[in-house]
Amino acid sequence: MLRPRPNINKLAHCVHGGIDYAELKNLGISPEAILDFSISCNPFGPPPDIKEALANVSIECYPDSNASELKQLLAEKLNIATDNLIIGSGSSELIRLVAIAYFGPGDLVLIPQPTYGEYEIACHIVDAQILKQPVLGEPNFHLDTGEITDVIEKYRPKGIFLCNPNNPTGQYMTKEKVENIMSITSSRLFILDEAYIAFTENAWTSLDLVDRGNLVILRSMTKDYALAGLRLGYAIAAKQVISVLKRVCPPWNVNAIAQKAGINALNADSYLEECNTKIREARGFLIKELEHLGLSPLSSQTNFFLVKVGNATKFRQELLKRGFLVRDCTSFGLPQYIRLAPRTLPECQRLITAIKEVGVLSHAS
What we know:
By secondary structure, the protein is an alpha/beta fold. It has helices at 6-9, 21-27, 50-54, 68-78, 91-102, 118-125, 145-155, 175-182, 221-225, 239-248, 256-267, 271-292, 312-321, 345-364, and strands at 35-36, 85-88, 108-110, 129-131, 159-163, 189-193, 215-220, 233-237, 305-308, 324-325, 327-328, 337-340.
């Protein structure tokens, strides 16, 4: 029997938020009956004109492999050159492209914990070695700059993944901290994942760090404009780095519908700002109500946050029975925590009612 490379045999499934359709089928629950608080996408859906625009997309021809029109518009919005951009089928594809292009067997890659699981998967695919330090813990899960610089100087990893704001903790590093970490060496590749930057309060720009030549910035239009069913993201880096990523990028990696959706989303100038106002209102409501219930959410600088509930797996299951999906953070190594991202205010009110029911049941048992 043909066997894959040993490192592929060792690959584990990466757990994500979102609906597990097989799970719902086994429970006899319709997906349409679920309110999903487990994903951190824009809960207000895509800009209103997108669906109409997509109806006219030609699907009988191959899409533009360079996503030229989308890339040009995005470059103008960001005030950068198109040579500093590559468009991907979600940021997860771009994470794998970075690993394929820059890491190989035996290369050491630093991934502070807890964080997004796809970094580790991408490194395992190319048989790189992973260093899971430092481990960020309670009470605030803050990344200590001194600790991570010590780790980098000691182990000299070839790559460093930094999720900012971090998933699942919602902690956001200042520009000074990121610059201090990057200043240690210019020979390491830093991957700065800013998938949730659009929802982050008082966000700083990282674009002026790209000229250093050893930085890849990842962003997600999937999250910003609720395009999860299409998948759309982009990476910003020095021209030489983008050129390398293009060499390992599959042709036609972003389909025609996703490209058109991205163009229309970028042209909806005030949409994201309007959504953010409502998201912050709903987030504030959730935090206040959870605190009243004795479930104190952790401080977060973005749209999602952690809540300590005891047994996260059981808590999720009880809410799922009532039509609400939250993110069990056991896969992040945080079995006592769930992650919540706000939806509309009425939907958040319904979630709080369900959490009260779950609380009553747990006290009764």
